Amino acid sequence: MKSHKLDEEFESKKSEVLFYSAEKKSGKVKHNPWSMKCHQQQLKRMKDNAKHRNQYKFILLENLTCRYEVPCVLDLKMGTRQHGDDASEEKKANQIRKCQQSTSAVIGVRVCGMQVYQLDSGQLMFMNKYHGRKLSVQGFKDALYQFFNNGKYLRRDLFDSVLKKLSELKSVLEKRESYRFYSSSLLIIYDGKESTMDSDSEYSEDLSEESADESAGAYAYSNSASSMVDVRMIDFAHMTCKYFGEDSVVHEGQDTGYIFGLQNLITIIKEIRDDNNE
Mean pLDDT throughout 127-153? Predict the structure, then answer.
């Protein structure tokens, strides 16, 4: 109990929404200040843990935002359960508590992070996972609205593309037996730049060429729509299925918790779209 109280106090202190001015060079954001902070911390840990070695191990990751001039990213923790089958009792209890105290238990999805560009101020707005855990269902809906709002107007041009990709993903998952995606996330990415139809068309062609050779490390949909929306499933460390012979637990049926969250996400985005038609 004492440990849980300390965790809650820490999360309360860390819960925040931040704004950073976007440093641009030739019309493109030079670097993401939040990402830079994370990378610097990680590099420091690597150096501290390898003081007497000159060799390092790396995991090659795809930069999903590199094709966007001003990337807006929504990181959603999916499903009603977050702990893997191999989790310790302490880890299991901790993850269950986080789900019960957030929107994960109610609608099967919660905000794990958000970055959105505000055209009116020229700033990037960040919402961290601690803030995301504190959101009510209405707060979650408000956060989604904020993600699709650039400070000047609601990006209605994104809704159809996002909903199409989410519906396709839901259809795929409904056909998958024994798969579980515990603690995985769903990313929604779009470009926050203001652009003309001509530049959008040119950008779409470039993106289509890149999307033809996507990395197999993340479940992806190619971006053929003019709005340039990307939807990705990421973080498969605790993913399991019947084809993993070394896993001790084999589940049956669909990942109902993930599908439940996906359906609620689709419903909420449709409500935002329909309530703000002009």
Answer: 97
